[in-house]
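Hey, I was hoping to borrow your eyes for a little while. No rush at all, and the record is pasted right below.
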Amino acid sequence: MSDEPLMSLTDREASWPVVSSEEVYGDEWVVAVRKDVITRPEHPEQEFARITVEHPGAVIVLAVDDDERVLCLRQYRHASGHVFVELPAGLRDAGDEPAVETAKRELQEEAEMSARSWRQLLSTYPSAGLTDEVHEIFLARNLTPASRGDFEMKHEEAEIEVFWAPVDDLIDAVLAGRVRQGPLAQAVLAYDAHRRRGTLDEA
């Protein structure tokens, strides 16, 4: 164990040797499951398997109005067996579309809102040991109503409830464990950290 210089406090890309790889599951949806057999560097005799959920990534939008209220959703998630308090979000499944453009589209489609001010709050790996999914979390402000046009809400989205929650009430709910959806917790706590530091308006 060593004390790293502050400038080196950063994640770094790496790739261990892959002996074999196979697709375990894949269909017409965007998620697939891959099984790799890998080895430690310089230890080719030590083979072991790792499962990866291949995922295109997602955007999450913390939309805050002039009264310090957050635009929230209630949405059913079958895998977790909960109706979660969430933020507008969506998959990055539109090719090479920039993340912020996907975020703008998701805010309009799910919540019928647009924003004149955008900045990135965080970029996170929600479960780095299991999936290559990356969450790009944005702050949206200067909000105005915007029709979703001909976009049709389907499946779980068709039952979404949209509501507003004061920022501080949402933070209290996260810290008390009443609201547990990961990207929401990360977004609102990051917002609070910037607010306390006076850096909300920094790009």
Residues 182-197 form the longest helix (16 residues). The beta strands are 18-26, 32-40, 43-54, 58-63, 69-77, 82-86, 89-91, 113-124, 135-145, 161-166. The chain has a mean pLDDT of 93.
